[in-house]
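User: Please predict structures.

Assistant: First:
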Amino acid sequence: MIDLKQIYDKDEYQSMRAFYYCKNIEDKPRVYELITDSYWAYCYCIEVKDRPEVRNNITSYNHKSLYYLWDIREC
């Protein structure tokens, strides 16, 4: 039986690795599509590039609020 916590951790780890790859090596569509965790999607939009397809993965209300405040500050 698979524990849901293991799946979540794997997704978060995958998102983290994809974020750092895009930030430090090369920003490829094939890689940024792997950023599905809310926190890492938020980091990607703030630190790499604000892409709508990644921004849609910001699902946590805390991260959405922080993103909204950042977006207002940038205007």
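Second:
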Amino acid sequence: MREEVESTTQLHHPNIVRYFDFKEDSVLHKKDGSQKNVAYIQQEMITGGELFDYIINSGPLSESICKYYFQQMLLGLSYIHSKGFSHRDLKPENLLIDKDYNIKIVDFGFACPLTGRDGSGFNRT
């Protein structure tokens, strides 16, 4: 989680979700009085849900809507690559729709530098 937040806090683009904070040693106080150690990421609120759910619930998208979302996805990916990162987990579940029906790329858990984690140029896990 730490790597995910650190790699994305420097990304500022209209088609990329904004991360604001990360805590890995927070405490959740339960209603029954018990406590649990938790980690969390605070991010921009995106109210439209996943593109995946939209497709499942509404059926195939029209060509014009596909072009609209594809262009936004490419703009976001181009920006991510220009900052030296690879997302590596792009799928409809990681494309959120905001209140204005724009795409926001989310979930940078598999992201890594374009040079690879070890500098070899390979994006291995």
